[in-house]
Design goal:
homodimer, 365 residues, six-stranded parallel beta sheet, globular
């Protein structure tokens, strides 16, 4: 079942369903993306330690990466990316890009000076310089970045914020979504709306009712995995995800562990992003089909086997745990490369296997 | 003209000569090495930031890399490398490896506790642990590393040392060379002798007369580019290099700039190693066919052209100066990768061009 999305050039095809889970293909101007998909995070115009060639090469075969509006706006700045004709050209990435709105980073990294109904004034975490983000500014930045999928600028209250804070954030996020919806976009740039509401089901549903009529190309669940209990995350997923429009892609922002991805997929989510595979890799944690490997462990010192014998990545096919441990202990750059390639391959295969299961065991759509 | 070297499996073929300069091929059990050759430095079992695949891929096409005995002995330690069957297996490098003796690092990095006629006692620069290197220990370590070419353990006095220090170091280096010459080696492992003597021509020639009769597979000039004037370096090269046996490879240790390599080649040198291309890359300095590029310079901020339009490396074919500058400023790992690949490619092509000139303009041997 192929559905055209509101933005020309985009369509979403559901291939099979298994309960709430869906296997699909998101068609974009920069290529087709089999879903469910995990999107590697390319914070500052680079998926840390990886070249575009490595990201594209099978078995990793990344079809879409994420760029951070907040980081790219501060450094290198829009003038540079505009001179390169956008983020695709600047980063030499010819497949799809999703950009976040900057909202999450402003609320988590920057020093907030003022939040009002119009936007947020903050100081850069890099040099302390003062900046202001509004829905219009976020959309203008994303327009210059030229991502395939832009995200609405939203307010992200902490998971433990009180009801009043949540309500005000929700109202603002809805008002800001409306302003983003009518803001100018780059040619061929889709826009996703974000449903907030924390772990309160009623609040989530109420916010969904405000966001869905705005006719976005896809819908994201924001404000999960921001400090709440995992049981609450999963409960909200189970209660809410499948209620997002079935014919449009559903994106769970900033999540998560391999188990979280499986739960999200079973709940009906199509897209994920998280720094976990890349950041954990650099910190010495490697995902495997068995136990997670903590590479500095002495047990790896003389282990001439691969990180994961079932993994087809170049790291596992070429290098031993002992070699990786040595590189890690010696703080060698090559360690971060090899570890990142492995963890991203693990995530890609994990999601691909779940997709195969949906296709094999599910109902053709 | 093909000459078998003393160690079985090694031969040296001189293809053409131009004055003192020679174009040749060093045949080793791990492949053929066109000379003159620049050997990338793989200090700790990795050419920093590079995978073996990248080092092998044309146009870089590295045929031999260097490993540092001192670093590898301290970390990961011999037990680990022995368990991997040697450095080739540990680092997944199937081409040739030359290991230094550890002498230079002991004298430049470690805290020396004692130098005597038998060897050197020192403290590790990593954890302060005490160790002792002798000619026999250095050879034993290199035997475990299993390099294709081992180097004699030598004493390296500073460039400004007085005559007495130089004389004692020379006498020890000769005595140690004799002990290295008869020490057990790995199967198919060649051994090069090292001529010391600082910038005093007579002392150099005298030491050469002590080292040459020991019938090494090749000969190195040590103790140059250790703080002396460049004019003195070049003078010694011109006076001494061509007097090393013509039918065996000649290696100038730890040198140098592209101009130094050209001077060395014209003086009759066949092999070079230096951290300059790799270290400079990480520090923001990129070699080009024109002016050297200091990547953080503001001039690169909006420069969407490559580092060097004449360079065929993947960095220059894919990425702009502006992107590299951004990665450098943001301290992204990808910067070091792209910059190292470029500088090593520059060095490889620089030496390859000089070789082509010798073949084109010189006399067939």
């Amino acid at each position: 079942m192929l559905t055209s999305l509101p933005t020309p050039g985009f369509s979403f095809e559901i291939v099979a369903t298994l309960g709430h889970a869906r296997a699909g293909i998101l068609h974009t101007p920069h290529g087709d993306i089999p879903t469910p998909v995990f999107m590697p995070v390319g914070t500052a115009g680079t998926v840390k330690a990886m070249t575009p060639d490595e990201l594209r090469a099978p078995p990793l075969d990344a079809r879409i990466i994420l760029g951070n509006t907040y980081h790219l706006y501060l450094r290198p700045g829009l003038e540079v990316i505009e001179a390169a004709g956008g983020l695709h050209g600047f980063a030499a990435w010819d497949r799809a890009i999703l950009t976040d709105s900057g909202g999450y980073q402003v609320f988590s990294l920057a020093a907030i000076n003022q939040i009002d109904d119009d936007g947020v004034t903050f100081r850069s975490h890099i040099d302390g310089s003062e900046h202001r983000l509004t829905p219009e500014v976020s959309m203008q930045i994303q327009r210059v970045l030229g991502s395939d999928i832009a995200m609405c600028f939203d307010e992200c209250p902490p998971g433990d914020a009180d009801a009043q804070v949540h309500e005000r954030a929700l109202a603002r996020t809805t008002a800001w979504a409306k302003r983003c919806r009518i803001a100018p976009r780059a040619p061929g740039q889709a826009l996703f709306g974000i449903v907030q509401g924390g772990i309160d089901t009623a609040r989530r549903l109420r916010h969904m009712a405000e966001i869905l009529p705005l006719d976005f190309d896809g819908h994201a669940l924001g404000g999960l995995a921001v400090g709440e209990n995992l049981a609450d995350t999963y409960r909200i997923l189970d209660e809410v995800a499948h209620l997002l429009p079935a014919e449009r892609p559903r994106y769970l922002m900033g999540v998560g562990t391999p188990a979280d991805l499986e739960r999200g997929i079973l709940a009906g989510i199509d897209m994920f992003d998280c720094v976990m595979p890349t950041r954990n890799a650099r910190n010495g944690y490697l995902f495997t089909s068995g136990e997670r490997v903590n590479i500095p462990n002495a047990a790896n010192r003389l282990d001439m086997g691969p990180v994961d014998p079932t993994c087809p990545c170049a790291t596992c096919k070429t290098h031993s745990r002992a070699y990786l441990r040595h590189l890690y202990m010696a703080k060698e750059i090559l360690y971060s490369r090899l570890a990142t390639l492995h963890n991203l391959t693990f995530y890609a295969r994990h999601v691909a296997r779940l997709r195969e299961r949906i296709v094999a065991e599910g109902t053709r759509a």
